[in-house]
């Protein structure tokens, strides 16, 4: 019977969060005065400052789209912002160990002057087996080709050459208004609004333009005084409740604004699947 009560409660929570609306900041002049009452917690002071100082201009200019999440009484509960981003896979050359890099650079020097004798000697040296040497040889060839193409096109200084690029959306800001008061639910406010309001908005955008990833930078200020203490509360929140993961195998462009923040990511395709089942996962967590 207790499980049945929890299920009903969670269904009610979902309906409760679906009543909230998502509104572009500059779409309504009244929002200028509403955001004056927005208050972030102590560690989110920079997010509050952004909303009150820079958000209106950036939203108007189209640099960043800023959204207010309001309840049925037009009170602001949360704000978030989205902007276009980019992730990429660097060439293998940049991921080499120092000894491998030295070996590849020797191959590059030999290839540039077409010194086949030197190349053969590197193969015969036994420093690496034939398979590994072949791999490093291909990396050396690729490095020369990229460099030559940059010189030929004249963009060697203006273009960052990478192996692959991936379109992405950055969830740049995600902040609760601590002045906002509402009844407590089993599903926390931030979790409910993320899955019921923010995710549908992201899905709507990605129905119109190709996009592979959603990423963010978590401003986690969890104290880590002891070397053994590695738990980051905000990072764990994003992982457990919003289903983000650490960025692995890809490189993200990180501005000064996010210098001390933790990069996290998830595929848009996975996000859409998770959005259909997140309540079930929350339910399982609550009864464990």
Short structural summary:
By secondary structure, the chain is of the alpha+beta class.
Can you lay out the helices and strands and say which pair or pack?
Elements: H1 2-18, E1 21-24, H2 31-34, H3 45-53, H4 55-61, E2 65-70, E3 76-89, H5 98-112, H6 116-124, H7 130-153, E4 164-176, H8 189-206, E5 213-218, H9 233-240, E6 245-246, E7 251-252, E8 262-267, H10 268-275, H11 278-287
Parallel strand pairs: 4-5
Antiparallel strand pairs: 1-2, 2-3, 3-4, 3-7, 5-8, 6-8
Helix pairs in contact: 1-8, 1-11, 5-6, 5-7, 8-10
Question: What does this protein structure show overall?
Answer:
- With 288 residues, the chain is of the alpha+beta class.
- The protein folds into two domains: 2-20 and 80-88 and 164-287, 3-Layer(aba) Sandwich (Aminopeptidase), CATH 3.40.630; 91-153.
- The chain is 45% helix and 18% strand.
- The chain is built from eleven helices and eight strands.
- Strands 1, 2, 3, 4, 5, 6, 7 and 8 form an eight-stranded mixed β-sheet that branches.
- Helix 1 packs across helix 8, helix 5 runs antiparallel to helix 6 and helix 5 crosses helix 7 (130-153).
- It starts with a helix and ends with a helix.
CATH class of the largest domain: Alpha Beta
Total beta strand runs: 8
Radius of gyration: 25 Å
Q: How does the major sheet shape up? A: 8 strands, mixed
Low-confidence stretches: 1-6
Q: Structural class, from helix and strand content? A: alpha+beta
> What is the correct CATH architecture of the largest domain?
3-Layer(aba) Sandwich
Helix content: 40-55%
The number of helices is: 11
What's the shape? Answer: elongated
**What is the CATH third-level topology name of the largest domain?**
Aminopeptidase
Order of helices and strands: HEHHHEEHHHEHEHEEEHH
What is the domain tally? 2
- Mean pLDDT across all residues, rounded? 84
Beta-strand level of the residues, as a percent range? 15-25%
Q: Calculate the terminal CA-CA distance, rounded to whole Å.
A: 15 Å
């Amino acid at each position: 019977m207790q499980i049945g009560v929890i299920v009903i409660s969670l269904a009610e929570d979902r309906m409760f969060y679906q009543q909230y609306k998502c509104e572009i900041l500059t779409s309504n002049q009244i929002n200028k005065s509403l955001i004056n009452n927005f208050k972030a917690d102590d560690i989110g002071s920079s997010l509050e400052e952004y909303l009150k100082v820079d958000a209106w201009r950036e939203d108007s200019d189209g640099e960043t789209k800023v959204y207010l999440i309001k309840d049925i009484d037009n009170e602001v509960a949360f704000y978030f912002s989205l902007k276009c981003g980019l992730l990429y896979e660097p060439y293998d050359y940049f991921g080499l160990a120092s000894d491998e890099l030295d070996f590849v650079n020797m191959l590059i020097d030999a290839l540039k002057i077409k010194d086949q004798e030197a190349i053969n000697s590197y193969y015969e040296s036994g420093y690496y087996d034939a398979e590994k040497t072949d791999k490093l040889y291909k990396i050396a060839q690729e490095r020369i080709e990229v460099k030559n193409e940059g010189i030929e096109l004249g963009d060697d200084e203006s273009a960052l050459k990478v192996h692959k690029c991936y379109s992405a959306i950055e969830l740049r800001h995600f902040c609760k208004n601590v002045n906002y008061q509402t009844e407590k639910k089993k599903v926390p406010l931030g979790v409910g609004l993320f899955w019921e309001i923010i995710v549908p908005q992201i899905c709507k955008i990605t129905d119109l333009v190709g996009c592979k990833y959603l990423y963010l930078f978590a401003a986690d200020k969890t104290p880590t005084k002891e070397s053994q203490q590695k738990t980051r509360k905000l990072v764990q929140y994003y992982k457990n409740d919003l289903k983000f993961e650490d960025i692995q195998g890809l490189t993200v462009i990180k501005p000064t604004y996010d210098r001390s923040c933790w990069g996290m990511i998830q595929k848009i395709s996975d996000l859409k699947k998770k959005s259909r089942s997140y309540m079930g996962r929350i339910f399982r967590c609550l009864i464990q």
